[in-house]
Amino acid sequence: MSFKQLGLIEPLLKAIQEQGYTEPTPVQKQAIPVILAKKDILAGAQTGTGKTAGFTLPMLQLLSQHKRAHNKPEIRALILTPTRELASQVAESVDIYGKHLPFKSTVIFGGVKINPQLVALRKGVDIVIATPGRLLDHISQKTIDLSKVDFLILDEADRMLDMGFINDIRKILAILPKNRQNLLFSATFSDEIKRLADNLLNAPTLIEVARANMSSEQVKQVIHPVDKERKKELLSHLIKEGDWKQVLVFTRTKHGANKLSEYLEKEGITATAIHGNKSQNARTKALADFKDSTVRVLVATDIAARGIDIDQLPHVVNFELPNVPEDYVHRIGRTGRAGNIGEALSLVCIDEKEFLENIEKLIKKDIHRFVVKGFAPDPSIKAEPIVQKRGSGSNNRSRPSNRTRPSPKGRK
Prior knowledge:
seven-stranded parallel β-sheet, Rossmann fold, 36% helix, 412 residues, disordered C terminus
C-alpha cells in the first residue's frame, strides 16, 4: 500500500516523498484512514513505529479541507506531549509534513523564555504543540485562545500520567470545545489510560500495532551480569571493543548521569549528560551534539526516554535498570526504529535482581544473559536494597513495585 492509496492530498505526498518515505508503517496504514474519516482513535504503538506521522498527516489534511475564512489563523489543533524534547520532535514533524501547506504552528514548553511564545501566539497560529504545565501558564494568563480547537491529540499519554500530569490534562480538557476530534496515543494501556480514554474519546476506533507492554521485536536484548562497582569499566570496555559510534546510556539519577559522562570523557570517549537539572539550551545542545556524532555517548535519565528520535540509533544501554518496568520498554524503544535492528544491553548487578524479574514478567520473556570475559560477578557479594535520595532522579520511586504517581517537579 502506498501513501497515495491512503487518500492523502498532493502537498502531503510531496513532503513525504522529499523525506524519502515510500510505504506507510502499520500504524500509519491503520490510523490515517480512520482519522480522515473524522473518528476518535485510541492507538497503542511502541516508539519508532511512525505514529507521529500517523496523526500529523491526516490532521494537516483535515485542516486543509476545512479552512476557515479568517485573515488571522486560529488555533484549531492542540497536541499535548509529556516532555519538551518530544514537543520539539513533534513540532519538527508538523513543519516537515506541512511545508507545502499554509499553516503556522508553534511549540510551547517551560524552561525557556515565554516572550517568543507570546509573540507567536499574538501573530496567530493554526497548530500548537505543548507540554501541559507551560500551556496552563498561558491559559491562566489569558495569552492563548483554545475556543476554536477542532483536534486534540494526546501523544504518549501513559508517560504524561506517569509524570503526574493527569490533573493538568483535566484542567485543559475542561476549557476545550466539546465538539472536537480526539486522538490518544499510548505505548501501554494501563487502567488509568483506559479511564482517561473513557472520559475523553467518543466511540473510538482501537488501533494496536504491538501488544501492550511488549518490547519491540526489532531490538536484540541482552543482560550482562556485573558487579556494581565495575559497571563503568565494563561500559567503557564494550564501547571501545565494539567501536560504538553512537550509544544512548540510561542511569537512574541525574548525579549518576553526570558522574558517568565525566568518567567516559576521562577514558577518551566523548560523552555528555542530559537530565532535568540541565537548562533547556543545554539539553537541546546535548541532543544536537549526539545526533551529529560530535559526542559518541549520551547519558540520560528517563526524561529523555521518549524525546530522542533517531531512526538508526544502534545501541541503548541500561547502565542501571529502571525502577518501574514499563520504563524499560520505553528506554529500549529508542533503538530498533523505522525498520532497523537495534541492540539493548543492560548492565545488571545483584542489587537489581528484583527489577529484572519484574521487567521479564512485564515483557513476558526471559532476556538472554551473557557474562563478558573478565567481568564475571563476584558470587560472594550480597544484594543490598536500592534507595534513591529525594530529587536524585527523574522520579523518586525507590522500589520496583511502587506505582504511585509523583507530582511534577515544576512546569515541564
